UniProtKB/TrEMBL annotation:
<keyword id="KW-0963">Cytoplasm</keyword>
<dbReference type="Pfam" id="PF00581">
    <property type="entry name" value="Rhodanese"/>
</dbReference>
<dbReference type="InterPro" id="IPR050229">
    <property type="entry name" value="GlpE_sulfurtransferase"/>
</dbReference>
<keyword id="KW-0808">Transferase</keyword>
<dbReference type="InterPro" id="IPR036873">
    <property type="entry name" value="Rhodanese-like_dom_sf"/>
</dbReference>
<comment type="similarity">
    <text>Belongs to the GlpE family.</text>
</comment>
<dbReference type="InterPro" id="IPR023695">
    <property type="entry name" value="Thiosulf_sulfurTrfase"/>
</dbReference>
<comment type="function">
    <text>Transferase that catalyzes the transfer of sulfur from thiosulfate to thiophilic acceptors such as cyanide or dithiols. May function in a CysM-independent thiosulfate assimilation pathway by catalyzing the conversion of thiosulfate to sulfite, which can then be used for L-cysteine biosynthesis.</text>
</comment>
<feature type="active site" description="Cysteine persulfide intermediate">
    <location>
        <position position="65"/>
    </location>
</feature>
<dbReference type="GO" id="GO:0004792">
    <property type="term" value="F:thiosulfate-cyanide sulfurtransferase activity"/>
</dbReference>
<feature type="domain" description="Rhodanese">
    <location>
        <begin position="17"/>
        <end position="104"/>
    </location>
</feature>
<protein>
    <recommendedName>
        <fullName>Thiosulfate sulfurtransferase GlpE</fullName>
        <ecNumber>2.8.1.1</ecNumber>
    </recommendedName>
</protein>
<dbReference type="InterPro" id="IPR001763">
    <property type="entry name" value="Rhodanese-like_dom"/>
</dbReference>
<dbReference type="GO" id="GO:0005737">
    <property type="term" value="C:cytoplasm"/>
</dbReference>
Length: 106
């Protein structure tokens, strides 16, 4: 059984430099609309079916929440439905915006 991997903010930034990597932001709509990492997919219960239709199971998926806790559950779920390379970003968006403010869309 495939499992997700927890990664640091720095590892996430390196992975995002590669082509065909998806960053799934699972925060609520108001938080996502206020600021998010450029190019992030807003993954919610309502967008899950569309996500699974658009993002191939072989595509590496980074899951980001507020602080890196809730993303672990979603990462685990994505691996359970067949995504092969899933990562939970430790520190979440709050950590990201402090380390990489120039990579966050406001």
């Amino acid at each position: 059984m495939t499992q997700f991997t927890r990664i640091s903010l720095q590892q996430a930034a390196e992975l995002l430099k590669q082509p065909a990597v998806c960053l799934a932001d699972i925060r609520d709509s108001a938080s996502f609309n206020a600021a998010h990492v450029e190019g992030a997919y807003h993954l919610t219960n309502d967008s899950l079916v569309q996500f699974t239709q658009q993002v191939a199971r072989k595509t590496p998926v980074l899951v980001m929440c507020y602080h890196g806790n809730s993303s672990q559950g979603v990462a685990n779920y994505l691996t359970s439905i067949g995504y092969e390379k899933v990562y939970s970003v430790d520190g979440g968006f709050e950590g990201w915006r402090h380390v990489y403010p120039f990579m966050a869309t406001l």
